[in-house]
Amino acid sequence: MTLELGPDDKRMRLRYAGTCHLCGTPLDAGTDAVYERGTRTVRCVQCPCTAETTEPETGTAGASARREYQRRKQNREQRIRTAHPKLGGLILALSDDPQSTQAWAQGAIGEELLAQRLTDLPDTFRTLHDRRIPGTRANIDHIVVGPTGVWVIDAKRYKNKRPALHVEGGLIRPRTEHLRIGGRDGTKLIAGVRAQAECVTAAAGDEASPVFGVLCFLEADWPLIGGSFTVDSIHVLGPRLLIKRMTGAASRNINVGTLHSRLGKAFPAA
User: Among 265, 259, 268, which residue's Cα sits nearest to residue 22?
Assistant: First the structure.
């Protein structure tokens, strides 16, 4: 089967002999093949190893969060109209959804905003949005695969609140790092991203690719200078610095297309 060309693929006639990195077939000089710029490897034009290279569904950022918001909103409306047949409409018009419901809408907006920013990445990067972790009720907002590694990103929209690193101990007591958001403890978010990154690392298998966990805060009160830090190896930053971090890290010998396909199958669209 002929595989579709990815954004960093080029079909060409080989000047030198090579080997298909997918199936191991020797490719003689003068043979038509596909050159993958990102990994500087070649593959067959018609390769039997299609399972690992089929382009996965990218997914829709914020889709599952929006569905949960609509479900909660509709359930509340139904409860109020059932309990107050005559005044239900007026009650709904004069009252807001509870914060627990509004949080799902805000979360969806954050994921959508970050997905838009990720379009600024070079075409050597490939994205997956709103991915389900099989066997759990959890999901991963964004997975980005590129020459610099795999980036597991949790998008958070904390408008006008400042994320900060809080360190305790270090001399007599053991050093501990905490995340604070607008002065309140948010360290549990770090544990969530770390668990997601561990799932992705396991799914990547033997691929020689580093996996980075990221908490990306959108519309936060970031300072003009600096603003990024790590908490227990998890990157905490805004979208502008995230793009710089992803593109500026050291490049690795990563088969972006194969790894992107593998993770897309391991974590289906939510």
Answer: 259
* 86 three-class SS: coil
- Could you give the CA distance from residue 171 to residue 107 in angstroms, rounded to a whole number? 39
Strand partners, 177: 167
pLDDT (tens, 9 = 90+) of the chain, 270 residues, equals 445 566 668 888 988 888 887 666 788 888 888 888 767 788 888 766 544 446 788 999 999 999 998 999 999 999 999 999 888 888 888 888 898 898 889 899 999 999 999 999 998 999 999 999 998 889 999 999 999 999 999 999 999 999 999 888 767 778 888 999 998 999 999 999 999 999 999 998 766 689 999 999 999 999 888 789 999 999 999 999 999 999 999 988 888 888 999 899 999 999
Alpha helices in the chain (DSSP H): 63-83, 88-94, 99-118, 188-204, 239-248, 256-266
Query: By the 8 A CB rule, do 254 and 128 touch?
Result: no
pTM as predicted = 0.76
Type of residue at 230: T
